[in-house]
UniProtKB/TrEMBL annotation:
PROSITE patterns: START. PANTHER family: PHOSPHATIDYLCHOLINE TRANSFER PROTEIN, START DOMAIN-CONTAINING PROTEIN. This is Acyl-coenzyme A thioesterase 12. It comes from Struthio camelus australis. It comes from the Eukaryota. GO terms for molecular function: lipid binding. Residues 18-166 form the START domain. GO terms for cellular component: cytoplasm.
Length: 197
């Protein structure tokens, strides 16, 4: 378990530090970058938020509040609270036309910074839990790596970077969004800012 959570944080940190991000969209408070490697698509969304970093950290690391701003989350429940900083969640997302709704079992690990220059981190990845086998109602999907890095800009503002790494087959709507338009991602990011502030 310790290895899994360490791995979770390390994978996100590694993804964030990768060179080769291409900026695809810039709004006032939201910037979107993407990176493609083979059939893996990585997304980075940077948001400027007018609340302290520690508050953003506590709001974003509670995934049960996610459906308040992210329409891709239909339900979210805690399956297992491993400790204060690690929880396993069961998430369902609404069905796309002609597809079964998806479900996910993810481990979410959070870390506070050791030094002021370091970000708060909330990292999530899919795990297998014998108590939650795939069901016929849902299409069990996998999140390779997703999460947030939150940098403090001042006592009342922070920069929130959201990352998501998916295989192109997993999220057809995300791939379509990125090639067609990034409006839906921007919309979700703006909802996230609104929720935080």
């Amino acid at each position: 378990q310790a290895y899994l959570s360490y791995n979770n944080i390390a994978t996100l940190t590694h993804l964030a530090a990768k060179p080769g991000w291409e900026i695809t969209s810039t709004l006032d408070d939201v910037k979107i970058w993407t990176q493609e490697e083979g059939d893996v698509l990585s997304l980075k969304v940077e948001m400027q938020v007018k609340i302290p970093a520690d508050l953003a950290f506590s709001l974003l690391s509670d995934f049960t509040r996610r459906q308040q701003w992210d329409k891709h989350y239909l339900t979210c429940e805690v399956l297992q609270a491993v400790n204060d900083d690690e929880k396993i969640y069961y998430i369902t997302s609404p069905s796309m036309t002609g597809h079964k709704p998806k479900d996910f079992v993810i481990l979410v690990s959070r870390r506070q910074p050791c030094k002021p220059s370091e970000p708060y981190i909330v990292a999530g990845k899919s795990v297998t839990l014998t108590s939650m086998p795939p069901s016929s109602e849902y299409c069990r999907s996998e999140i390779l790596c997703a999460g947030f890095q939150i940098y403090s800009d001042s006592s009342s503002s922070c920069t929130v970077c959201y990352f998501n790494q998916v295989t192109s087959g997993v999220l057809p709507h995300l791939a379509a969004d990125l090639t067609g338009s990034s409006k839906s991602i921007e919309g979700t990011a703006l909802e996230c800012i609104k929720f935080l502030e």
